[in-house]
Specification:
Elements lengths: L2 H28 L10 H9 L4 H22 L3 E8 L2 E8 L2 H12 L6 E8 L5 H20 L8 E6 L2 E8 L1 H12 L6 E8 L2 H10 L11
């Protein structure tokens, strides 16, 4: 496999994580599948290398789904709110029509089960254009790709969200990793500001996590 093929494979596996985890969650909620049954081997390995426990990953997915649904019920078309949960800490980004709507959004999300913390980055303003939202999506993709390319980071340790040119970085990382990821994000075209929403661990904590991490063989068929 040449260098270009290897890079594409790594990026493909990174993108597979969310899909595999989401499929597992939907199956678990409907009672139609075991927790991780049916997930692709590559996706299962990446879920395992996430620094959150599998249970916490599923809780984060459930928090995002429940919060988004309840916000739509309460605010309808008056708001465009993105809910991002990592380790049960919820980041709210987007726009609301009024300060009253912002307070409603905060109350709704605080009431979702298992939410441990809330980071409010909502703006009281009109929603950006489709062009602006597309630009944000492109920035997010560029930052994620750059994290994958970084040989000294585990890209799967980070969650990236972009709103109006501001990149939000979440993750369970060491100060060294946080600084490196911030440096990378700031170097990406289109990034106006970087906001760090990290939880910090020590290098010793990281070494213990890596030592306890299951190998790819543990997730091969028949295991």
């Amino acid at each position: 496999m040449n260098a270009s093929s290897a890079l594409l494979a790594r990026r493909g596996l990174l993108l597979l994580t969310a899909g595999a985890l989401g499929a597992s969650l939907l199956g678990a909620l409907s009672g139609c599948a075991p927790l991780v049954a049916g997930a692709a081997v590559g996706g299962a390995v990446l879920v395992a290398t996430d620094r959150r426990t599998t249970a916490t990953q599923l809780e984060d997915q459930t928090i995002e789904m429940k919060a988004s649904h309840r916000l739509r019920e309460q605010l309808g078309e008056r708001a465009r709110i993105n809910v991002t949960s990592y380790n049960r800490r919820v980041l709210l980004t987007g726009e609301v029509a009024s300060e009253a709507d912002r307070q409603t959004a905060l109350r709704v999300v605080r009431g979702v089960e298992n939410v441990l913390g809330l980071i409010d980055e909502l703006a009281v303003m009109g929603s950006p254009s489709l062009t602006a939202r597309s630009a944000d999506a492109l920035v997010t993709a560029r930052v994620k790709a750059a994290l994958v390319d970084a040989k000294d980071l585990s890209a799967n340790a980070f969650k990236v969200t972009t709103e109006r040119g501001t990149v939000y970085l979440m993750g369970l990382v060491t100060p060294r990793e946080a600084d490196r990821a911030t440096e990378i994000a700031r170097s990406i075209s289109g990034v106006q500001r970087v906001v760090r929403v990290f939880e910090f661990i020590t290098e010793a904590d990281l070494a213990r996590m890596q030592a306890a991490r299951p190998s790819a063989a543990d997730h091969s068929p028949g295991r």
